[in-house]
């Protein structure tokens, strides 16, 4: 397996706070890699740097072996890296179907030249995009809400729609932030199944922050544990759960329960 994300000795300071401290980790292509750790361990800060929200204070981040340190989110998107779940407010007034149809990055309809001179081709492309978006909604069992505004969907449906955007975008590596938060069990099963299908059938790589340990155990291998800004240990969830250092730092030395009650 090739390394797709390579975080090398990355540090992030916010004033006096050392949020990420000389952290190194890799995500292998084709994996669903979990990132867990106690509150304040630095997971979100690390994600923000990998996704191009802000640059590290020091260290390097490689994507496919190429130095992408400090590149903006849209530049990373052009290289196939996408972060969810953050349905942009701008899109919340649009329907589920329209949200998906917006995704293909450079639709010919957006070009003035194409709009004027290749109207037939543009219309054909739009039809194709619509049909693809409808297929995606069908796969995600969202067809019944296709004409509903994204802003009116439930938390879980919004997350499914975000996965739909991933499917439309032809992303290669996807950063997922807390799939389970605020999602009911049925939709969570749909979400987990969609992630697994995208991973297995389309070869997508996922890098997942999650507090739901059962979901992590079900979806992720390997699991990386962060504590105090750097990696404590990495391995399959079954091993992680048994690691005394992890049990002490993460589960508070008690029963192996959820990180958050
Ligand atoms: N913008 C910021 N300014 C100042 N301190 C910050 C900022 N962002 C994060 N921190 C601090 O950096 C540390 C790591 O925070 P981070 O949110 O990355 O942890 P986390 O592992 O994602 O935690 P959680 O599981 O609670 O989301 C914390 O001490 C946090 O208070």
Automatic annotation (TrEMBL):
Pfam short name (any one): BCA_ABC_TP_C
GO CC annotations on file: plasma membrane
Any GO MF annotation of the entry: ATP binding
Record-given protein name: ABC transporter ATP-binding protein
Keyword entries, A-Z: ATP-binding, Nucleotide-binding, Transport
Organism of origin: Nitratireductor mangrovi
Keyword Nucleotide-binding carried by entry: yes
Top-level taxon of the source organism: Bacteria
Family under the similarity heading: Belongs to the ABC transporter superfamily.
Ranges where the ABC transporter domain occurs: 5-253
Signal peptide range: none
């Amino acid at each position: 397996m090739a390394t797709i994300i390579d975080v090398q000795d990355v540090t992030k300071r916010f004033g006096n706070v050392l949020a990420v401290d000389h952290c190194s980790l890799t995500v292998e292509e084709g994996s669903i890699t979990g990132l867990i750790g106690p509150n304040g361990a630095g997971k979100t800060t690390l994600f923000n740097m990998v996704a191009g929200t802000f640059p590290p204070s020091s260290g390097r981040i490689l994507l496919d072996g190429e130095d992408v340190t400090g590149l903006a989110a849209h530049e990373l998107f052009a290289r196939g890296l996408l972060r969810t779940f953050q349905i942009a407010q701008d899109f919340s007034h649009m329907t589920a179907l329209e949200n998906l149809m917006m995704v293909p990055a450079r639709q010919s309809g957006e070009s003035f030249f194409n709009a004027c001179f290749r109207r037939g081709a543009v219309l054909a492309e739009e039809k194709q995009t619509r049909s693809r978006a409808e297929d995606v909604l069908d796969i995600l069992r969202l067809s019944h809400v296709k004409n509903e505004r994204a802003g009116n969907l439930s938390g879980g449906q919004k997350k499914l729609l975000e996965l739909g955007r991933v499917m439309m975008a032809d992303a290669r590596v996807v950063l997922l932030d807390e799939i389970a938060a605020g999602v009911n069990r049925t939709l969570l099963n749909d979400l987990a199944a969609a992630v697994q299908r995208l991973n297995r059938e389309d070869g997508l790589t996922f890098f997942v922050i999650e507090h739901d340990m059962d979901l992590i155990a079900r979806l992720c291998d390997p699991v990386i544990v962060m504590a105090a800004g750097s990696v404590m240990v990495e391995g399959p969830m079954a091993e992680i759960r048994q690691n005394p250092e992890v049990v002490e730092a993460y589960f508070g030395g008690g029963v192996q329960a959820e990180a958050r009650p």
